[in-house]
Amino acid sequence: MAAPGDRLEPPPLPEYSCSYVVSRPVYNELAFQQQYEQRPKERKTLRENLTLLPILDWLPKYQIKEWLLSDIISGVSTGLVGTLQGMAYALLAAVPVGYGLYSAFFPILTYFIFGTSRHISVGPFPVVSLMVGSVVLSMAPDEHFLVSSSNRTALNTTLIDFAARDAARVLIASTLTLLVGIIQLIFGGLQIGFIVRYLADPLVGGFTTAAAFQVLVSQLKIVLNVSTKNYNGILSIIYTLIEIFQNIGNTNLADFIAGLLTIIICMAVKELNDRFKHKIPVPIPIEVIVTIAATAISYGVDLEKNYNAGIVKSIPSGFLPPAMPSVSLFSEMLTASFSISVVAYAIAVSVGKVYAIKHDYTIDGNQEFIAFGISNIFSGLFSCFVATTALSRTAVQESTGGKTQVAGIISAGVVMIAIVALGKLLEPLQKSVLAAVVIANLKGMFMQVCDVPHLWRQNKTDAVIWVFTCMASIILGLDLGLLAGLVFGFLTVVLRVQFPSWNSLGSIPSTDIYKSTKNYKNIEELEGILRFSSPIFYGNVDGLKKCIKSTVSILSLEIWFLTTFETSFILQNGIISGAGSSNNAFEPDEDIENPEEPDIPTKEIEIQVDWNSELPVKVNVPKVPIHSLVLDCGAVSFLDVVGVRSLRVIVKEFQRIDVNVYFASLQDHVIEKLEKCGFFNDNNIRKDIFFMTVHDAVLHLQNQVKSQEVQDSILETIALIQDCKDPLELMEAEMIEEELDVQDEV
């Protein structure tokens, strides 16, 4: 038994004794396609790609006995949470809180029919609501609704027409919702659901964390009941914080205490729900409990009258009739609507995929675009703001046993009851309590900061994207910050593709495995085998040139470049002369490595090559130390016209110096691109230089070398016979040599 301080040895790695032997012909692309015919590509029509009514797929299979009770419990729990969150998130959207109830009800009705996720809870989300609010505040600030009033105590005082302001803001929010829905519907119809892939996880993490910080600041002034100007754009959050701290002496203590207690209680109970979620069948609806208690206290103590607390005051009872938003406002909100539509979709699909994987089903990204597009168009007609899904609300729906969107419909029923019956009862509720509910639900987004150190250890580039997007979104605002994060993310991809990795390959003896000679020991180095790990396009053609240049001896290749390309220069007698001068410096019988005038100083010059230039027809070039070049193109995912043209130039130039170029492991669509771009139009470039694997190409070259050696031996014998005047004398001389060899051995 080992002593306590002894270091334990790591367990030995398992040894794999199995092996395999494969016997097959050496395949190039031409031979493979002749033997195995390609299948014709089947392209689905737009109608086949769209599942217009997903409800028809799952509703007939609904298991009433097994699922209905769970969906009822889940729907009631989710509906209670959704009611409170809808009212709270209306503050972020800068509309009266009653319209948050509408936004928690109407989107569910259409998503139930057109959506493909069974578990997400559709409705407002703080990040999206804040983005809507920034548009609303920029288009309808308080300054636009100032009216002058005169009375006996104060002459010509300026007041805000709250009724007109709220009506204008509701109209702007509903118009924005309609436009977002139209954009999402167009995106779904065009089958561009893949757009969400460009919102990488680090980018989304940084953006949502910054949005959480923006939400915190926007709700802080409500918790303190401190009035500030409505700032938007660059550094708006900084200006808001400065003004909050300048006016912090005017804090309303009743609102501050109510808000602080709400935050503490909600966060504490949510933590208990998380820790004991396996023991508690239904999470404690702490937001509902706190709201009911706060409403009762506010009504009993009359906080508005006695302590000047800010309360909800007016919640419309019942539903408003549908109304057409103002289409004339589209031009003023078009840019913001694009970012909101993509962010809302990305959040919904990301959450939906998490639960789809957990419960073993799939969601259709394009259909989700259509579902949310229809939901937002429908909601915009009923004075709602943009809907997506909320993480906390979806977690409640799934954790309480929700099986399908039937739970969503039941939750909508709970919200409907609140709209019809409970509106007036909630009017004494303090706004600070709703703001505190919003802040308490931001914990999960703030905790994403803890992912940054772990992300830095895994991938420093992703960590930088996270931090950059977060800081840009805080400083520039959510719209510009998201755009800056996208541009920065694209820039990192471009830089990684523009400066790709490449390496020379060697073979593991007696196998068909080829690995980098820099990274592994005890492998057989084979000169002239390269792997280029990137697409080949106009931005990295120089990297491909550098890769090839490092393989051939530098001196030989520099001379090749100097004597080949029109744009290069010839170094002759210490003078650099332009293209078009006679190439007297390199005659066929001249020894390049031993010039006749050693006293002339030489210096290194940088070689700049135009890979797309026309090639001179007759040049004299030196021999290079390789007879073939194999390019492993398995990592080449695409080519552009410049890349194809450059490959053709490389092949033709190497052929001119008696070096054959072979390609291995190209994907089918890359070969198709070569064909479309005329790569094979030249008679000297055929498909038989493309091989299925690197090993196929190496075996082909080995067979060629053996055949060439046999052929050279035969030609050498024939030449000796032709040079000898008497063949019989040659045969006698060979016999004498053989006898002498035998005597020496004896």
TrEMBL record:
GO terms for cellular component: membrane. It is found in: Membrane. The chain crosses the membrane at residues 89-114, 170-196, 202-224, 231-248, 254-272, 284-301, 334-357, 369-391, 406-426, 463-495. It is a multi-pass membrane protein. GO terms for molecular function: secondary active sulfate transmembrane transporter activity. Residues 529-701 form the STAS domain. Pfam families: STAS, Sulfate_transp. NCBIfam families: sulP. This is STAS domain-containing protein.
